[in-house]
Design brief:
The structure holds two protein chains of two kinds.
Chain A: E1 2-11, E2 14-24, E3 27-32, H1 39-46, E4 53-58, E5 61-62, H2 67-72, E6 74-77, H3 89-99, H4 104-113, H5 129-141, E7 147-151, H6 159-174, E8 178-183, H7 186-192, E9 195-200, E10 203-208, H8 210-213, E11 219-227, H9 232-241, E12 245-248, E13 253-258, H10 264-271, E14 276-286
Parallel strand pairs in A: 3-8, 3-9, 6-7, 7-8
Antiparallel strand pairs in A: 1-2, 1-4, 4-5, 9-10, 11-13, 11-14, 12-13
Chain B: H1 2-14, H2 16-39, H3 47-81, H4 83-88, H5 94-128, H6 133-160, H7 164-193, H8 197-206, H9 208-221, H10 229-238, H11 241-267
Helix pairs in contact in B: 1-5, 2-3, 2-5, 3-5, 3-6, 3-7, 3-9, 5-6, 5-11, 6-7, 6-9, 6-11, 8-10, 9-11
Classes of the chains: A alpha/beta, B mainly alpha.
């Protein structure tokens, strides 16, 4: 379904994606890595939005040569939800439906699937973050594409919104869709992914499963560390070297840790003379829910 | 492509900037019509012919500004808002997206121009009959071609500029250059380099505004003698080919920037 061969993307002197190759047939595949690891760029290259080296195929169709046809087979949910804010919800989905040559009835059905029916006259700017996310999901499902690609699908949502989106994606996966998503949340990876590609500095450093990421632990917690002085990327690199799954997003380091060893990343950082100012415990994930 | 054009058209028509430009153009056209009628006294001659001459200068100021500002924001603003990424992730090619937006904005621009001219035409026909309506219609047609040429240029700016504000700044500078600075430059160049009349003519028609002005004056008078030695040279040397050359210049100003914009947009390795 999704095939990448030596995908390389440079922005000036920076190599954002460095010769990534993988092939994925069915089920959900997650891209895991810190900010700047190359997840978003890789997704954009796979969709043919960015010109890049190497080749990408969606359902056997070359994205560079027949990009329009390939993108018709993909529903995409971007990281930053950008709609025309003045447009009404009904008009917004009708526009994307016409772009994807989908009837208005199917567009209405897609809205109903994400419980947005009845809100058609609301302006997009008046929608909550969760509603916008659901609208993006409805647009991605227009035309029933076999592949769904999502870039940090729940990054702007609260806990309830996250559960709704993950639930919808699980049911799409059960319907036989191929799902590729970028995430930094262990709960999403464990609930959805059959396979995980760990990205670091534009390269795949591990091709594993959710269980492979946290092999010895039944329950995993995500904690957010706030540091004193030290740049987060530097601390993230140290933790990654020590085997932690880390994500840094500018507002703290999110680290997945075993439930009974929440302080372990703090002691690792202390060994490198990095002081932790504050610690937040986010959510707990049961790895026994993992797909494989 | 057509659904992009349709959305662009509706968004432009509903936009405040377009409404303001259309209203301004319609009001100024109406004012010029009334001034033309009042200075005509008892002679019904005035009507369309005199108003056409008056509107020519208004069109050269307002219409390029409308086209350049609306077109330059088109792609650059989508890029800045992040909506371009979302559009490009849909089953549409970059060239189709660009042409769809161009078609939609062209439609809105033509509607806006036609409304202004139509209001003026109704007033003129009511008070002074239909004498000279032919040259007025030619002015409308030439104005539409000029608007499309300026819109193409604006699209090229919009594709190349990284930010909407930069695109708008460049388009306003372009407008100033084409409306005021190029005339001043041509005058200075003529004196400094002692340019020959054919060289002055060739340099003048590179500017689409001048090609438009000459085209309309030629349509009204069948000659460019009123423009002095350069006009007389063009009329007598080029003869019947002159209107075709002037129209050709405007067509090139439509096609070339749009082609360049499409190529740049399609080959861009970033958003």
């Amino acid at each position: 379904m999704i095939e990448a061969r030596s995908i390389t993307k440079r922005f000036g002197r920076t190599t954002a994606v460095d010769g990534i190759s993988f092939c994925h047939e069915r089920g959900a595949i997650a891209l895991w890595g810190s900010n700047g690891a190359g997840k978003t760029t890789l997704i954009r290259c796979l969709l043919g939005i960015l010109r890049c080296g190497g080749s990408a195929r969606i359902c056997g169709i070359d994205v560079r040569r027949r990009g329009r046809l390939a993108r018709a087979l993909v529903g995409y949910v971007p990281q930053e939800l950008a709609f025309h804010d003045d447009a009404r919800l009904g008009r917004a989905i009708a526009f994307f439906a016409s772009l994807r040559r989908v009837s208005h009835e199917d567009a209405a059905r897609a809205l109903a699937l994400v419980s947005l029916n009845g809100h058609e006259t609301k302006r997009v700017r008046d929608l909550s973050g969760g509603m916008k996310q659901r609208l993006a999901l409805a647009i991605a499902m227009l035309g029933d594409p076999p592949v769904i690609v999502l870039d940090e699908p729940t990054s702007n949502l609260d806990s309830e919104g996250r559960h709704e989106v993950v639930h919808t994606l699980r049911s799409l996966k059960q319907q036989g869709k191929t799902i590729l998503f970028a995430s930094h949340r262990p709960d999403e990876i464990i609930s959805l992914a059959d396979r995980v590609l760990v990205l670091e500095r534009g390269r795949i450093v591990r091709d594993t499963t959710p269980i492979g990421l946290w092999p010895h632990e039944r329950a995993v917690k995500t904690i957010r560390l706030h540091l004193v002085g030290t740049p987060e990327p530097e601390a993230a690199r140290i933790l990654l070297r020590e085997g932690f799954a880390v994500h840094c997003n500018g507002s703290g380091l999110c680290v997945a840790v075993p439930r009974d060893r929440k302080a372990s990343p703090i002691s690792v950082l202390a060994r490198h003379e990095i002081e932790v100012r504050d610690l937040e415990v986010l959510e707990e994930v049961d790895t026994s829910e993992a797909s494989s | 492509m057509l659904c992009v054009a349709r959305r662009e058209f509706v968004d432009a028509i509903a936009g405040k900037w377009f409404l303001l430009c259309s209203l301004t153009f319609a009001l100024l056209a109406l004012a010029i019509s009334f001034v033309s009628l009042s200075t005509a006294g008892s002679h019904a001659f005035a009507g369309f012919s005199k108003t056409t001459a008056g509107l020519l200068n208004l069109v050269m100021l307002v219409v390029p500004l409308m086209a350049l500002t609306s077109g330059s924001a088109s792609i650059a603003a989508e890029r800045e808002r992040g909506t371009l990424l979302y559009l490009l992730a849909q089953p549409i090619s970059r060239v189709e997206l660009l042409l769809g937006k161009y078609l939609g904005l062209s439609g809105a621009l033509i509607c806006s121009i036609c409304v202004g001219f139509a209001i003026s035409a109704i007033v003129l026909a009511w008070h002074a009959g239909s004498a000279g309506a032919g040259s007025y219609a030619l002015l409308v047609a030439n104005t539409i071609v000029l608007a499309l040429a300026m819109l193409s240029t604006a699209f090229l700016v919009s594709v190349l500029a990284r930010r909407a504000s930069i695109a708008s700044g460049i388009s306003i500078f372009l407008w100033l250059t084409l409306v005021f600075l190029s005339d001043l430059g041509l005058m200075a160049g003529t004196i400094l380099f002692k340019l020959r009349v054919q060289e002055v003519f060739a340099l003048a028609i590179v500017n689409p505004m001048q090609a438009f002005k000459m085209g309309v004056i030629h349509a009204m008078n069948d000659s460019l003698d009123v423009l002095g030695p350069v006009g007389a040279y063009a009329t007598h040397t080029l003869g019947n080919a002159l209107p075709l050359i002037l129209a050709g210049v405007l067509v090139i100003w439509i096609a070339l920037p749009l082609l360049l914009a499409s190529l740049c947009f399609a080959r861009r390795s970033t958003l």
